[in-house]
Write a structure and sequence with these properties.
Elements (H helix, E strand, L loop, with lengths): L2 E8 L2 E8 L2 E15 L2 E13 L8 H15 L4 E6 L10 E2 L3 E7 H4 L9 E4 L5 H11 L28 E6 L2 E10 L14 E8 L5 H14 L4 E4 L6 H6 L5 E5 L5 E6 L2 H7 L1 H11 L3 E8 L2 E8 L2 E5 L6 E3 L2 H9 L4 H4 L6 E3 L3 H6 L14
Parallel strand pairs: 4-5, 11-12, 15-18
Antiparallel strand pairs: 1-2, 2-3, 3-4, 5-14, 6-14, 7-12, 7-13, 8-9, 9-10, 10-11, 15-16, 16-17, 18-19
Length: about 375
């Protein structure tokens, strides 16, 4: 029995797979995305599927395929890679948890108190609304780390093929212009005949030109939840989102989970190109901090990057500095996306600091990285 490993492309997807007697027994599937780090754009490889046939598991095939796909991404010019993974498997390939999960819960009767403003018209989302939704989405997420760029080929909020499933989203119009939207789905019980429907009313995305429309959006969500007899509305939404803050006044309950070695995970593929591409965002952070001078070298197993600020201007080069932090790229990944703070990371045994790393705290502040559910792979 001979095992052959190969890479192949199928439409816009790349596969690394193991074959026995010409038949695929294990594979990793990769999809290409453009993703934000703040306002900057990087190339991200989304590992969208890892599978091994049951009779061929525990033989190292998936490990080989993962190793090959990481090399492929480096050779093809990717900056980072992300996946949504099971716990305690992908860390061996350098991936680290990087996406907190946020759930905001409201009692439907409380949400119903939100004012429905007469200047807005509510209707179900259609394909004709895609351009308007994209405009709002990109404006709302213009500095939201880990959000993906939705291109002109984005197909919108697609309806389910399952019978009886409600429309996937609605929009608000004002004077004929789409000014807000909300997307939601009702999670299905795993009944093959789909006779048993949902156990929760889950809102998966909200976007708006401004906060004036929030009350009408929430009132409409409450109306649709009541229609289907749900006592609570759950929103999968980052807690620093303006709509999440608006919901506080209605008695919101907030739950955040930081996964341990699983969930939304990321690793750096090419440290040099990553920092070259996000230099503009890092400069914005320098400007916002009013920092005029500073220097720090960041060293990982992938290489060294020297950040130097003189007169408020940032330079990013390869080289050594007086101030230095040595750390695994997995921890650097978490700092880059804002999943954890510098203050927390330096307490790790694998992290070593020399000199003053104040600049690092300006470059990589803690934040709320997020990928909206419809964009997950």
């Amino acid at each position: 029995m001979t095992v052959v490993f190969r890479g192949r492309d199928e439409k816009e997807v790349h596969y690394e797979e193991a074959l026995i007697d010409g038949k695929s027994v294990s594979y990793v599937r990769l999809v290409s995305y453009e993703m934000r780090i703040g306002s900057s754009i990087v190339r991200m490889g989304g590992v969208a599927g890892v599978e091994t046939k049951k009779e061929h598991r525990m033989k190292g095939y998936a490990r080989r395929c993962m190793t090959r796909i990481i090399k492929y991404m480096f050779d093809e010019g990717y900056d980072v890679s992300m996946l949504f993974g099971i716990p305690n498997f992908y860390t061996k390939f350098g991936y680290a948890s990087c996406l907190p999960e946020h759930i905001l819960t409201l009692n439907t009767r409380d949400a119903e108190e939100a004012q429905r403003r007469s200047e807005y018209t509510v209707r179900d989302f259609t394909e004709e609304d895609i351009e308007s939704v994209l405009r709002i989405y990109h404006d709302n997420n213009r500095r939201r780390t880990c959000t993906v760029l939705r291109g002109k080929d984005w197909k919108g909020f697609r309806p389910s093929r399952r019978p009886g499933y409600p429309p996937p989203a609605f929009v608000l119009e004002k004077e004929g212009r789409v000014v807000a939207y909300a997307a939601f789905h009702r999670s299905m019980d795993p009944d093959e005949r789909y006779e048993r429907y949902d156990y929760e009313f889950l809102v998966t995305e909200v976007g708006a030109e401004n906060s004036h429309s929030f009350s009408t959006v929430l009132n409409e969500l409450a109306s649709r939840a009541l229609e289907r007899r749900f006592g609570q509305i759950r929103l999968s939404i980052p807690f620093d989102h303006p709509f999440a803050e608006y919901c506080h006044r209605f008695g919101a309950e907030l739950r955040i989970k930081y996964p341990k070695n699983g969930g939304g995970m990321m690793r750096i593929i090419n440290q040099k190109t990553l920092f070259e591409k996000i230099k503009e965002e890092l400069q914005l952070r320098i400007d916002e901090s009013n920092l005029k001078e500073g220097e720090v070298e960041v060293k990982t197993e992938l290489g060294s990057t020297l950040f130097t600020v003189e007169g408020g201007r940032l330079e990013v080069t390869e080289g050594k500095g007086r101030n230095r932090i040595d750390l695994p790229q997995s921890i650097l990944t978490q700092l880059v996306v804002g999943y954890r703070s510098v203050e927390d990371a330096i307490n790790e045994d694998k992290v070593h600091v020399k000199g003053n790393i104040r600049l690092l705290k300006v470059l990589f502040p803690k934040s709320f990285p997020y990928i909206w559910r419809i964009d997950r792979f």
